[in-house]
């Protein structure tokens, strides 16, 4: 078994390596690049996140485990930090081969049990919400096709053996990890905190190189297949929740956050402060744009801010604008009005 320490500036960290927590970078088909799975060499042998449901990711996972002297069949527990396909897609294969127990936040269990069904309902909601906020119908059709393509990486259904809630603890022979619920980037974001060593495994909650997008989402309960398909009104304010989650994490002041993508974060308070300043600046820019003319939809604002990128990545940019509009509503700075089934905003 290798005992080498990670190189400075990489996804791992000497503090984590000393505690038997090691990164296994896995390729994804997405612009973000590799996703970091985290191997915890303790009893039970645990893998946090598993990568997308692709052959390339599976080969990389097998190689990464072998480099530490393990096989997939040796894994006893899989913990999933959130719902996105680049983190959960291989779960069913890993569980089938190892018999490992899956632990995940309780809100994630229905999605893992029916990834295709939940994905279809969520895609319909997204299309309705995007059109409500000004996305042309032809672009919405293309967006639906793109999102359906992403579902190919979601993997097969897998049961959650241990549904987690905030404050739960995952016991090991040599440590205990506290479960922190940190919604924002997604509605299932979970951070695992080793208080004794001041190490957090953060998923996509806090990433050094890029700002985690608070992605447009609906209330997870609205995705229940027994209910009518969610309408645009089911949208929740993910940025509002993300800002609150960031502040909660900064208050805990872990020495290191092991990120789902890229390098470990060692200045947690500094990075959180930087992210909060970013959102304040973006909020101010959007308010300024609203003061320049007629009431504008989220898509109108996205076009003004990012040009053609709003057509290439409408889901991300509209999510970004909507989050900041929510913050401006909290500030009592803007008002919304609806015409032709499209929401538009203007300064108060």
From TrEMBL:
InterPro entries: Metallo-B-lactamas, RibonucZ/Hydroxyglut_hydro, Sec-metab_biosynth-thioest. Residues 34-261 form the Metallo-beta-lactamase domain. It holds the Pfam family Lactamase_B. It comes from the Bacteria. This is Metallo-beta-lactamase domain-containing protein. It comes from Patulibacter medicamentivorans. The lineage of its organism: Bacteria, Bacillati, Actinomycetota, Thermoleophilia, Solirubrobacterales.
